[in-house]
Amino acid sequence: MTETILSIARNAILTERDGLTALADALDSRFAHAIEKLEKATAAGGRIIVTGMGKSGHVARKIAATLASTSSPAQFVHPGEASHGDLGMITEKDVVIAMSNSGEAPELADIIAYTRRFGIPLIAITAKPGSTLAQHSDIVLALPDVKEASPSIHTPTTSTTITMALGDALAVTLLERRGLTPEQYRVFHPGGKLGQRLKKVSDLMDRIENLPIVTTATTMDKTLLVMTEKNVGCVIVEDDKGNVAGIITDGDLKRHMSPTLLAEKAGDVMTTNPRSITPDALAAEAVDMMLKTFKTPITSLLVMEDGRLAGLIRIQACLQAGVI
């Protein structure tokens, strides 16, 4: 019984895999032409309008979301709603991607006619290059003839998988050609685990006005009071010119513990050349430095900008923000 169930599932997955292979092999210059159209429209302030009905509509929504999240302005327009006023969402600056496996979805008729009337580029994604949709499109991205995953009832499975993969290929190609950096990508993903991993040090650091700072001449009894008041696990030591001279951590206190500690000066107890990072670095880089770069993990890094103290980033703040 179990083997029969697993055999059916594996056959479905392998059938869809074969469909994806066929899709990759079928890509040609029309795909490149479509990319050029999409780039031209978005560079001129237009958007990518994605539409489809039924299963194709669900795929179209996902593709529009993927495009938008990878810096290509995109919007899903439901073809039924388009016929009742939403055609006004589509402007002459835009380009439309219409999806229909058969290419004969009647609900697409008004969108097709609208694009033809106003000269809006129309890209068709369909398995039927001779269909009505294909015949009235500027570019046809033809899907290969594939077997659906269900051998008895041909419900859309492989066909929707390859359509979604083709949409992903469009989005990724546009993304790579734009050269989007992780920092720029973060703008579209401020939430979630990925967004947290892409937070900058400046987003999480304690600002300079909240830091415990003493001079090298400050006695340790006063230094400990400052350290306790600010409660960030360390105290920063500056020289008489206001430059960072060192840092005192719990580890430094333990190493210098003696009956005369309170009478000593901060400059005699501090660790010189404290580790630092810049405010525009990713917080994830700070975490790696604190946990992996040194023989013994540390819990905080100074944040330095143009040679001056800008803040302090702590491992605790990174943990709370979900960076790790």
Query: How many individual helices?
Result: 15
Per DSSP E runs of 2 or more residues, the count of β-strands stands at: 13
CATH homologous superfamily (4th level) name of the largest domain: Glucose-6-phosphate isomerase like protein, domain 1
Helix content: 40-55%
Radius of gyration: 30 Å
Q: SSE order in H/E notation?
A: HHEHEHEHEHEHHHHEEHEEHHEEHEEH
Q: Can you offer a commentary on this structure?
A:
By secondary structure, this protein is of the alpha/beta class. It folds into two domains: 2-180, Glucose-6-phosphate isomerase like protein, domain 1 (Rossmann fold, 3-Layer(aba) Sandwich); 197-320, CBS-domain. The chain has helices at 2-26, 29-43, 55-69, 79-82, 109-118, 132-135, 158-178, 182-186, 192-197, 201-204, 220-230, 250-255, 266-269, 283-293, 315-320, and strands spanning 48-52, 74-76, 95-99, 122-126, 139-142, 206-207, 213-215, 234-238, 244-249, 271-272, 276-277, 300-305, 308-314. A hairpin with a 2-residue loop joins strand 12 (300-305) and strand 13 (308-314). The longest helix is centred in the N-terminal third of the chain and has 25 residues, at 2-26.
